[in-house]
Specification:
Length: about 425
Amino acid sequence: MHNEPLAFRMRPKTIDEIAGQKHVIGPDTALYRMIKNGHVPSMLLYGEPGIGKTSLAYAIAGSTNLTFIPLNATTSGKKDIERVVDEARVTGKVILFLDEIHRFNKLQQDTLLPHVENGSVILIGATTENPFHDVNPAIRSRCGEILQLKRLGEDDLLVLLQRALQDETRGLGKQVIEISDDQLNKIASGVNGDARKALTLLESLISASDEEDGKVIIEDWLIENLIGRIGVFGDKNGSHHYNLLSALQKSVRGSDTDAAIYYLGHLLESGDLVSVNRRLLVMAYEDIGLAAPEVGPHVLAATDAAIRLGMPEAKIPLANAVIEMCLASKSNSAYKAISAAISSINSGKTGDIPMHLRDTHYAGSEKLGHGGYVYPHDHPIGSFGGWVNQTYLPDTLKNAQFYTPVQAGEEKKSAAIYERLKEFRKKK
């Protein structure tokens, strides 16, 4: 009887046993060839939980004759690093696998980095966070490879499941298990590309199933019940969460309603209503903007309703808002205008405020030369209201244009007025 979980027992022993990740460690990759030729570079492995970072590190070590030392950055101290360095002095070279490397502290770094640099310690770091955001630059600079792993495809997961069912030493091969191809496909499609979840689900199914005449019978309802408990991946403080927010905004911007609703659902299941509401409001004004100005207040009302309702009902007004934004006319002209103005200011392109625009609500303002402002409301112009031809920008920026209208939706009307006013100004 095995004590270790199936997912632990079925870790690949060598790089030839790895399922998936062909873009990183396939037979045609440089990394595969380097390892086969006896050279292991220091590297960072980046990706979501359960997709094989730890397994890949163990497989790389298993493909060499080097000493392999696994540590976790959250629980290891300076003494653990010193032990790795001492081992390297004795054996000449070791592989250090450091999980959660983004939590590596400065004291650990100072102890280890010189030995990574001279090659006596080969560092394989694993992180679920974007290494360009969360891993110390000193570590990154000493890792020749930064490898982003992907979720496993269903075919890769089926390979792992079949291997676990057939392996008599590490897997379940000594048991007689009745499980159909359709049932294996359900497992592979229901774990969101997570190998650890797939193997854990298979092991849980066998533990929960009835045995008849020495044969374990897997039933469909058990698969559906257990898959429903797995949940979705989504650490609301992690990189994947921000990737989901990015995917939601880009799907709305691209008017793909089904994709946007999918990412909204994924985010809501991860449990962070606050950041979803905030992003939806940003999108209403950044991406829909002046082309459909009614959308902003609609989204604000939806997010307010979501906060009052809470989950799970909050999903209903938010779904309304997302679909409305997807199908609305779109303009980013206001976002681009304010970005251009701020960029101009930050680059030093500023000037003095014209005298007629300066504050005159105090005694002595005239002595400073303030005044001469003409009140536009006193000068009606058709149905537009009031307008007068006077200078508003500093003299050094009088010809600057930050706003460029987009010919979409309601902004078409605003664009026509904008262009007409520009013609009026030219007559001055």
